[in-house]
Amino acid sequence: MDMPEEPPGRRGPEQQSLFDWEDPAPPAAPHRSFRDSPEARRMLDVREVYAEPAALDSPRGRQIMARLPDDVRVVEVPGHWRIPSLHGNDGNIGRWVRIKTETLVLGVKHKLTTRVNGRSADWIAPGTSNGCAMSCAYCYVPRRKGFANPITLFTNIEAILAHVRRHVRAQGPKTTPNQCDPLAWVYDFGENGDCSVDDLVCDNTADFIAAFRSLPTAKASFATKFVNPDLLALDPQGRTRVRFSVMPPDDARLLDIRTSPVPERIAAAADFLDAGYEVHFNLSPVVLRPGWERDWADLLDHLDDVLPTRVKEQAAAEIIMLTHNQGLHDVNLGWHPRAEELLWQPDLQETKRSQNGALNVRYAIDVKQRSLARLQDLLAERTPWLRIRYAF
Ligand code: SF4
């Protein structure tokens, strides 16, 4: 995770005008109709903005603010990270979902680093946002944020993309195929949020997708649980991989709060492929409970039944077993205790203290290995066309 990167109050990298590209300028932004729909407004109905002054002053910050209602309350903050009245206020736990709907944070991302990954992607690019309007109970993003986790949008998108372009060019062509991709260096840019939802209020996702159109040795990648039809107009030209996360619908109804229903995510796959995306799936998180094997088998049967051949031919998947965290468990008990009946299973899990002192929880190694083997057997039986890129 690259969240706690910058101390509050530092000035960010110098801002350029939006679209002052080194590369050919992208075409004019396509019209977006979904972001103005009632469905989009149910997800994000921004009433207050916490913003660094530099973010408000930036072209992207001004563009975001211009789209919000005039009466939005703006609170200037010295830094986007750990705003005391937001992240440090334990009274906010009871307003967990409401804050995600009504609050936005604008900040400048100072530490622009690309990290090696090697599992889902070759590289983790500096994200264009942090936090999420959806509320998956297992989400790792709020683990170090405290008592609220609304979207923080980084407004220095030009600096972020300039960094990524330099990084891509420095790699040269990919000469050794790996499970991330046989030909292209894969850059994940949605590690700490959901780019599909960010697009409802900000063009950062569109700019990232546009940037990778002119990077023939690389591919952008992001996972999502939200179907945003506006992304279909962004013309990725095969240089962006969208990974729809799926799990048995009964689990999703309890755990994936505010996300698009799983069948809707699956049904969108062909539209995204036809619009120029590569479409993969994240089988994640796998949550163990009585009946999990039957329900995952049903989900795989559903994938096999409804996906057209052209989607199957290019699909691949990641399997990610649930990891959890003591601090998040405590927060969740304050707003969604039923989810913890599923997520918190001390008999099956073991704890490990991470480098930052947090107590992380994961399935005991023998439980995990048995379960992964069983799920891979199910995949071989039900969806033999679905290549597993990695299982973790
Ligand atoms: S969609 Fe992703 S980032 Fe958003 S709450 Fe769920 S797991 Fe977290």
UniProtKB/TrEMBL annotation:
Keywords: Lyase. It comes from the Bacteria. The keyword Lyase applies. InterPro entries: SPL, Uncharacterised_Spl-rel. Signal peptide: none annotated. Gene3D superfamilies: 3.40.50.12110, 3.80.30.30. Residues 1-39 are annotated as: Disordered. It comes from Streptomyces alfalfae. NCBIfam families: lyase_spl_fam. GO terms for molecular function: lyase activity. This is Spore photoproduct lyase family protein. The keyword Lyase applies.
